[in-house]
Amino acid sequence: MMEATELNGVNGHTNESNGAPQSRDLAIALEPCDLNSIPSHIKTISELGGRLADGDLQVRLKLLKSARSLVAALETPRETMIKHCWAQPAAFTAIEIGIQIDLFKVLARDNGSSKKAASVAQELGVDPNLVARLLRHLGAMNYVKEAGPDEYEPTNFSTALNIPVVGDGYPLITEDVRIAVDKFPQFLKKTGYKTPSDALNSPYQYAHGSKLNMLEHLELDAKNFQRFHNHMGAYRQGRDSWMDPGFFPVQDRLVNGAKTHSGAAFLVDIGGSLGHDLEEFARKHPKVEGRLILQDLPSVLAQINQLDDGIERMPYDFYTEQPIKGSSATHIFGSGARAYYMHSVLHDWPDDVNRKILARVTEAMERGYSKLLVNENVIPATGADWQATAEDIMVMITSSSLERTEGNWRDLLEGAGLKICNIWSTDNALESLIECELS
Ligand SMILES: C[S@@+](CC[C@H](N)C(=O)[O-])C[C@H]1O[C@@H](n2cnc3c(N)ncnc32)[C@H](O)[C@@H]1O
């Protein structure tokens, strides 16, 4: 019995009532998480490393995945825990402070030549001790490069933080989103651990003590509103784009057969934010005829500083009648668009809200001519990417929504009177384009 008591302490093992062996041995926290898998990760990394120079995005992504798996296997549970609880929050806040005080701008000056923390601090007019400590942690985390004692160089990451679409995510999360993330466990405890399903009674409203949806709430603070839209403009940069060759056959599926009379609408981007997707389309497909129409709420369109001249801004609330509408009586003017497009719009909402949004699109579509293109994550049955799974949790918190599997998309879209013609995806299934027509 004496032995059993000791084993139930810090160093022991015990069996819980369900019979599952529960290790309470601290040693498990001090050994690599998965020693056995390490040689195979290293083998994959060395094979992929040799192919990186080809510039193939998929090779880089596979290498990154293997490198993450290697780190996870090498770290001990204690190290991973300290990383989550100390290192990452400390890095996040150091980055945000750095953005606030222009630290990364100063660091990037003179072609990124190495700089003493004290001279950076002097230029910023900030306490040198504070700057040195912030830089030391960012150096330890590889976000800036240590060049000597109290001396640092920028990295591509730290320099990129000076671009608003990259840097704006940090204060946005701190000032608006994190409170909801932090209160999510409390919300679930109160609601009996049921998956949130009401867009207006999500952890976001609970945390903010508000009845507004996230966008309406963000709108109360002009800075955060702008940051959110900048953040939206950044998160998909560098990912496969459906407008590129080898993804979705734009010419075959959209351009061929599109009406070209004056006034014909080619692509309507519903909830298109600041117009980044339509600008990309205009740049990549400059010869395509027909109107490119950007629809979003008036307050969002008012945030646009610059937009390609060929794109029309059309203030529009997607719960109301779609102005670009087909009808059997009007085949020249007032015809439906060749394609209505929604990118990361439906993932913001649970199905009941999406059914209302989709009803406005389907009633505007011209049968046999218009398409609906839905650019979203389609979560695979296994091997889902961490970006998609992270987004899934974030939209659950901010609007009781979800990132959808193919089955989830079929239920939603087919239930709304649409037929899925094809789901176009890339290798890693990070970006998908669901091509639909009226059923
Ligand atoms: C997650 S963002 C996606 C933006 C953009 N499509 C992209 O992929 O970057 C959702 C967009 O839906 C817009 N939105 C939200 N409610 C809307 C409404 N009632 N009518 C029109 N657009 C709306 C937001 O303003 C925002 O631009």
Written overview of the protein:
With 439 residues, this protein is of the alpha/beta class. It has 3 domains: 99-162, Orthogonal Bundle (Arc Repressor Mutant, subunit A); 167-235, no CATH class; 250-438, Rossmann fold, CATH 3.40.50.150. The chain contains 19 helices and 14 strands. The chain has helices spanning 2-7, 38-49, 57-74, 77-100, 103-112, 117-124, 128-140, 156-160, 164-167, 169-190, 203-208, 214-219, 222-235, 250-255, 276-284, 298-301, 351-362, 386-399, 406-415, and strands at residues 13-15, 21-23, 115-116, 145-148, 151-153, 265-270, 291-296, 311-315, 339-343, 371-376, 378-379, 404-405, 418-425, 432-438. A 7-stranded mixed β-sheet has the order 8-7-6-9-10-14-13, with helices on both faces. The radius of gyration is 25 Å and the shape is globular. The N and C termini lie far apart (71 Å). Bound molecules: S-adenosylmethionine. Residues 215, 232, 271-273, 296-297, 300, 316-319, 343-345, 348 line the site of S-adenosylmethionine.
